Structures are given as structure tokens and as C-alpha cells.
């Protein structure tokens, strides 16, 4: 059991290091991701170009390194937006009984759209830009956070210490911010990590469909989308960016699973 | 039972009303006037104004909103701006492909996810459990369009085992259709298979720690009898509900799969609609998919109450 735990910690450490490396890789990659070199176009992986070159002769390794940082940044922003909206809705729904029925139905309604479909529709409405992708995905994922926060708040509301604080005359705002919010944070953290992972996947899918961030923004999804024309002869232009997405999502899920199990005693009390 | 049903129906009506409102708001925010989009750059102001009146776009938003809700109640989704046919007809035309694809993907995910989950859960921390958990987390991390592109590149282009795209001509037989749908089916099933594996595993572990399993073992029954005859029946209960819900969510993901494999289904219709600003189609598909999800949710919920005697007692 203890040996398992140690192994698990090593795995989580590895995941964190991997994410850090992906964030930092663009500083060490050397080559300029935008430098066009037509003579060297669509060259397979070699010691000069570790991941090969794309149709403009640009270094795929440098582009993956830069794209990974951009994709992770977008994913993080999506998680923050989804957490802000979801936590606000969840806290209000869980704490005020009168609001619960209405807000819960809103969350149900948003959940009944498949996330990618809602994101596409919102992108059609907002128009293509980096900011809009963050907003659309943030909205699409907010109910996942909202539901969990609501359940946590609902359980906490009955807790004796909340009753004591109410008896001492604490205002609703104080109860929510000082007494409830810190205690639903573990829930938010666990769910947020998974939303981060989903957001990376969905963001790249949006780019692939041509409804995501504008094509000139160097994200991993855009790299795969633009490789579609020639990936049959030059598979490396598509393999490496996709592997980078998969590794990032995998790392986040490992961290999320670990957080959930580690914070379990706290979570069990909430449920 | 009756009260449970009527309660659920009430909240479903509310949810669908909110869904409709969200869809209406999204479609009215879409930039560009649909009338001028359809008529093109050569249209005169007069023609555009006439088309706007035809479509009721000149009326105040609130009137359009009420008209939209009225249409929905009659299950009328309006006419596509580009296809020159009613949205419902356009969806029906493409439904065969999308539904076949979803059924195939569900079959694949059940065929792989459930046995692996049973093996993993039957002996916790055993070889299959470690293998299954690794597979589960890996499978949930792969971007599906990327997996699709890899399968196309290596299995379809290089080896020629499968067609690269489409699903055969209009006269293609079922065997040819199936051949075309295998790769997309595998891609679509991946997240669901992984989820099923996880749920089955958890459920098996739960059941395997029950007293009656210990008793069965103590009686001297072999592991296969204990697992297949005693544990499986109870372990599969939650799994059945997950199959239903994931099948509903699958429809959303066909958007990506159908684009990768060039399949002219409902998912493809949505992408085209978004790129061409064909908002009646977008509205229709969004309403249908969300509605399906809500209805399947209800059926699964009621089915679960009906199957499980313990839940049957606790109807709210």
C-alpha cells in the first residue's frame, strides 16, 4: 500500500515535470518557429530538425514547443473562466434555497448540450478570436464546476459550524465567502484539473473543425488542422503536435486523479 | 411512480424552455444578417428588405422569440437558408448515417469496455486492473480527431484495409457501409469504451466486497461462477445507465468524427451550418440533440428505478 502510494507520487511528480517542461520548452528549442525555409520543406525528423519540418520548412519541434505553451495557456484561462462562472452559480444555488430550483435547471439545460456542440454554436455567435474561444469553452464547461460546487455547498449548509456562524449574526455574503468557499475549494481544484484536461482536447477539436482560434495563432490544434493537406506523405507534421496534446491531457488526468484521492477525506465529509 | 414521472416531466419542460432560450439567443447573436448572407453581395437593398420581411426578421426580438417557441412546440424547425429544404428533412436525410455510426460505436465500446472492466474489477490491483487503469487514462487523453487521422494514414492509406472517407455511394449495400464505418466507429467509441471500463471496474469492486460474495467463495464456488453468476448481475446495473447516457452524448462528438472521415451525417451538417451561418439548421440540430439527451436521461432514470428494487422504494 505504502509502496503504491510512493509510486503514485513519482508518477504525479513526473506529470508535473512534464507539464513544466512543455511550458518551458519554447525557451530552449533554439530554432525560430516562424522561420520559413522553403528549401527544407516537409523534411522527415533528423538531428537538425528533431520533429522534421512542415510545408513551409518551419521546424516542427519549435512549433510544437510554442504551440504547447499557447494551448496550455488557453486551457488554463478556460479553467479560470469556467471556475468563476461555475463557482458563482454553484454557491448561489447551493446556499439559497429559493434560487436552487431555477439555477439548477439552468445548469441542467447547459449540461444537455454536448460540450463540443455548445462550444461550436457559441463560436459561431461570437466569431473567431482567442478571447471568444476562452469565453465559449469557459461557458460550456461552467456547469461541470457548478454542479459539484452546488452539491458541496448544499452539504456544508447543514454543518454545525455554519449554523454557529449564522447564530452569531454572520451575513449571507460572509457565510459564503469566509465559511463555505474555502471548504469547497478542494472540490473546485479537483474538478478544475479535469476541466483543464477536457478544455485542451475540445480546444484542439475546435481548431481542427475551423471554428476555433484564428489559424495564425500557433496552437497544437491549429498545427494538426493545417497538416491535413499533406499528412499522408508527412505524418510527422500531425503526429508530434497530437502526441503533445495527449501527453498534456494525460498528465493533467494523473494529477486530477491523485488530487481526488488525496483530498478524499475532505471530499467525503462534504458528500 | 406516477408522481416521479410527472415531477420529472415538469422539470424537463423547464429545462427545454431554457435550452430553447439559449439556442434563440445564440442564433440571434450570430454576426451577419442572414438575408444579405443568402442573397450574396449582388443583392439590392430592396431584395434584402423583402426577404427580411418574409422571414419575420423585421419584427421585434420578443415577437420573433415567441414565434420561435411556437414553432418548436409544433416541432417545426424552419427552412435551411442554403439547402432549400426544411431543417427537419435535412436532418432526417442524414440521420441514418449518424444513428448507424452511434449504434456501431456503442456496440464497440460495450464489447471492449465491459469485459475489460469486469476483468479489472474482479481482482483489485491485479495485472488486469493495472493494465485496465493505464488503458483507461490513456484512452481518455487522446484527441479523437488525431486518432482518426492516424488510423486513416496507416490503416487506410498505407495498408489499404479501410476506405479513406465517405460511406459509399447511394446504392452501397450494408456490408460496404459497415466497412466504411468501422474506423469512425472505433474513434467515436474510444472515450465511451474507456468510461465503461472505469464504471464497470468500480461497480465490480463494490460488489466483490459484499458479504454474499464472500459466502459464495466460502461455499467453495470457483472464481468464474462467483464472478459470472453472483457478482456480474448486480455489478452491471449502474453500467446499463451509463451506456444510455454516453450514447446520448456521442451525438455531439459525431461533429468531429464525421468531419475527419468525410461522412455526410448530422455532425457534418452542423459544421457546414456554422461555417455558412445557416442558423435555422444550427437551431434545429441543437434543439434535437439537447432534447434527445434530456429524454434519454429520463428514460434511463426511470428504467433504473424500475430495475433496482432498492431505489423503487425511495421515489421523491
Overview of the structural elements:
- The complex is a heterodimer of chains A (271) and B (316).
- Chain A has 271 residues and is mostly helical.
- Chain A has helices spanning 2-28, 60-95, 97-111, 115-126, 130-157, 160-167, 172-209, 220-227, 236-262, 264-270.
- Chain A has one domain: MetI-like (MetI-like fold), CATH 1.10.3720.10.
- Chain A contains 10 helices and no strands.
- In chain A, helix 1 packs across helix 9 and helix 3 (97-111) packs across helix 5 (130-157).
- Chain A starts with a helix and ends with a helix.
- Chain B has a single domain, classed as MetI-like (MetI-like fold, Orthogonal Bundle).
- Helix content of chain B is 78%, strand content 0%.
- Chain B has 13 helices and no strands.
- Chain B has helices at 2-29, 34-39, 45-55, 61-73, 87-122, 127-139, 144-158, 174-208, 211-218, 223-260, 266-275, 279-307, 309-312.
- The mean pLDDT of chain B is 81.
- The chains are: A mainly alpha (271), B mainly alpha (316).
- The interface between A and B is large, with 45 and 49 residues.
Please describe the topology of this protein.
The complex is a heterodimer of chains A (271) and B (316).
Chain A: H1 2-28, H2 60-95, H3 97-111, H4 115-126, H5 130-157, H6 160-167, H7 172-209, H8 220-227, H9 236-262, H10 264-270
Chain B: H1 2-29, H2 34-39, H3 45-55, H4 61-73, H5 87-122, H6 127-139, H7 144-158, H8 174-208, H9 211-218, H10 223-260, H11 266-275, H12 279-307, H13 309-312
Helix pairs in contact in B: 1-4, 1-12, 5-6, 5-8, 5-10, 5-12, 6-8, 7-8, 8-10, 9-10, 10-11, 10-12, 11-12
Shape of chain A: elongated
Fill in the CATH topology of chain A: MetI-like fold
Which secondary-structure class do the elements of chain B indicate?
Answer: mainly alpha
CATH superfamily of chain B: MetI-like
Report strand % of chain B.
under 5%
Largest β-sheet summary of chain A: none
Stretches with pLDDT under 50, minimum 5 residues of chain A: none
Strand-residue proportion of chain A = under 5%
CATH fold name of chain B, please? MetI-like fold
Amino acid at each position: 500500500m505504502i509502496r503504491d502510494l510512493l509510486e503514485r507520487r513519482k508518477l504525479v511528480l513526473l506529470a508535473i515535470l512534464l507539464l513544466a517542461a512543455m511550458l518551458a520548452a519554447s525557451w530552449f528549442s533554439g530554432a525560430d518557429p516562424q522561420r520559413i525555409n522553403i528549401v527544407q520543406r516537409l523534411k522527415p525528423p533528423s538531428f537538425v530538425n528533431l520533429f522534421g519540418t512542415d510545408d513551409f520548412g518551419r521546424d516542427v519541434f519549435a512549433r510544437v514547443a510554442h504551440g504547447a505553451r499557447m494551448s496550455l495557456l488557453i486551457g488554463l484561462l478556460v479553467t479560470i473562466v469556467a471556475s468563476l462562472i461555475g463557482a458563482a452559480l454553484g454557491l448561489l444555488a447551493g446556499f439559497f434555497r429559493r434560487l436552487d430550483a431555477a439555477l439548477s435547471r439552468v445548469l441542467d439545460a447547459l449540461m444537455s448540450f454536448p460540450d463540443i456542440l455548445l462550444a461550436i454554436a457559441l463560436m459561431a455567435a461570437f466569431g473567431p478570436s482567442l478571447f471568444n474561444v476562452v469565453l465559449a469553452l469557459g461557458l460550456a464547461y461552467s456547469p461541470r464546476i457548478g454542479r459539484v460546487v452546488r452539491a458541496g455547498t448544499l452539504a456544508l449548509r447543514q454543518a454545525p459550524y455554519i449554523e454557529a456562524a449564522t447564530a452569531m449574526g454572520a451575513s449571507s455574503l460572509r457565510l459564503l465567502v469566509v465559511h463555505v468557499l474555502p471548504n469547497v475549494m478542494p472540490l473546485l481544484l479537483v474538478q478544475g484539473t479535469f476541466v483543464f484536461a477536457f478544455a485542451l482536447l475540445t480546444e484542439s477539436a475546435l481548431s481542427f473543425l475551423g471554428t476555433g482560434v484564428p489559424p495564425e495563432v500557433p496552437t497544437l490544434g491549429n498545427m494538426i488542422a493545417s497538416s491535413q493537406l499533406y499528412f499522408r506523405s508527412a505524418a510527422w507534421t500531425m503526429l508530434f503536435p497530437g502526441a503533445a496534446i495527449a501527453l498534456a491531457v494525460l498528465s493533467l488526468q494523473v494529477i486530477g486523479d491523485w488530487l481526488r484521492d488525496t483530498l478524499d477525506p475532505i471530499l467525503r465529509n462534504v458528500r | 411512480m406516477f408522481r416521479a414521472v410527472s415531477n420529472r416531466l415538469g422539470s424537463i419542460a423547464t429545462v427545454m424552455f431554457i435550452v430553447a432560450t439559449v439556442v434563440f439567443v445564440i442564433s440571434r447573436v450570430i454576426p451577419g444578417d442572414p438575408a444579405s448572407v443568402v442573397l450574396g453581395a449582388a443583392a439590392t437593398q430592396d431584395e434584402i428588405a423583402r426577404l427580411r420581411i418574409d422571414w419575420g426578421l423585421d419584427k421585434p426580438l420578443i415577437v420573433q422569440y415567441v414565434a420561435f417557441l411556437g414553432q418548436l412546440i409544433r416541432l417545426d424547425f424552419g427552412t435551411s437558408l442554403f439547402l432549400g429544404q426544411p431543417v427537419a428533412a435535412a436532418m432526417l436525410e442524414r440521420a441514418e448515417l449518424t444513428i448507424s455510426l452511434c449504434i456501431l460505436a456503442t456496440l464497440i465500446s460495450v464489447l471492449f469496455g465491459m469485459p475489460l472492466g469486469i476483468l479489472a474489477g474482479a481482482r483489485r490491483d491485479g495485472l488486469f486492473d493495472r493494465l485496465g487503469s493505464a488503458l483507461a487514462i490513456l484512452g481518455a487523453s487522446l484527441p479523437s480527431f488525431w486518432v482518426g487521422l492516424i488510423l486513416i494514414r496507416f490503416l487506410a492509406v498505407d495498408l489499404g484495409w479501410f476506405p479513406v472517407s465517405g460511406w459509399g455511394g447511394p446504392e452501397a449495400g450494408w456490408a460496404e457501409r459497415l466497412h466504411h464505418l468501422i474506423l469512425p466507429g472505433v474513434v467515436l467509441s474510444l472515450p465511451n469504451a474507456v468510461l465503461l471500463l472505469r464504471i464497470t471496474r468500480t461497480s465490480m469492486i463494490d460488489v466483490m466486497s459484499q458479504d454474499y460474495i464472500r459466502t459464495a467463495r466460502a461455499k467453495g464456488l470457483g472464481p468464474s461462477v462467483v464472478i459470472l453468476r453472483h457478482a456480474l448481475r448486480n455489478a452491471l446495473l449502474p453500467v446499463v445507465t451509463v451506456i444510455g447516457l454516453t450514447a446520448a452524448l456521442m451525438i455531439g462528438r459525431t461533429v468531429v468524427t464525421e468531419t475527419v472521415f468525410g461522412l455526410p451525417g448530422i455532425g457534418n451538417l452542423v459544421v457546414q451550418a456554422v461555417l455558412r451561418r445557416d442558423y435555422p439548421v444550427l437551431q434545429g440540430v441543437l434543439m434535437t440533440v439537447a432534447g434527445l439527451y434530456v429524454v434519454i436521461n429520463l428514460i434511463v432514470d426511470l428504467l433504473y428505478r424500475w430495475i433496482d428494487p432498492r431505489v423503487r422504494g425511495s421515489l421523491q
